[in-house]
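Mods, move this if it's the wrong board.
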Amino acid sequence: MKHTKTIALGVACGVLAFADSLQAQHYPAGSEGLKAATLPPPGFYFRDYNQFYFANDFEGGPPGFDVTAYVNAPRLIWITDLKILGASYGMDALIPLGYVDISSDPGGPNKSRFSFGDVCLEPATLSWHTKQFDVALAYAVWAPTGDDDLAGLGAGFWSHMLTAGATWYVDQDKTWSVSALNRYEINHERKNFTVGDTWTLEWGIGKAVSKTVEVGVVGYYQAQVTDDDPKGGGGKPHVAAIGPEVSAFFPKLGMFASLRYLCEFAANNDTEGHLFTLTLTKPL
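Not the wrong board. Structure tokens:
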């Protein structure tokens, strides 16, 4: 399911025992927020994602379904001095781990465990920074390194992920920003079954209220856009979410922090819950 493994994978995917269709993606929608398409300047960075997900609404799921998940996903980022077509070339890697508790009425799936998730390697990012725009392109691969049993954080298959996005600074002083980040995942076969491709759109509208603090509204839409192979009968899952975010820079610590809450809605063949994300970024 989306946030027990897609939270973890980029932080988290699924309840394997009763819904292969819920493993529709690796990438955890809601991982990025304001200025999601803006990559940092050249240098080394450590970013730590902390995601908390709660849901008890699952259309088509077992009676009494409830899931609680916490995933921590450390990420190392290197933006080099190399320029390609005027863009800064970079790369990064992410290794998720976390705890998932799944329960339902007697006779349904019930399990809790701590495990590692699938590793994400992003060998190529390109980022442009102009007066009013930041633009990013990237390619990543998800490797099936995690446990893919019930309540595990691994998906059990390889995925390719293409990324494209932009941040627009509306005013000359760059106090207002509008961002959109697209992820497209192409999944490989898992045990004679291949999940359809998934598209994720993350967006944000932010306002800098001081030199170190920014507030805004963020959201996402995530949907499976191609059929499973062989085609299943549950339909393609999709879900949307919206909520507030506050981000700040702490000069004495030399650290950036963002906190966001996202409330999911309009889910189809997917869970509908609440996602809290705390992200810490430290230049090295």
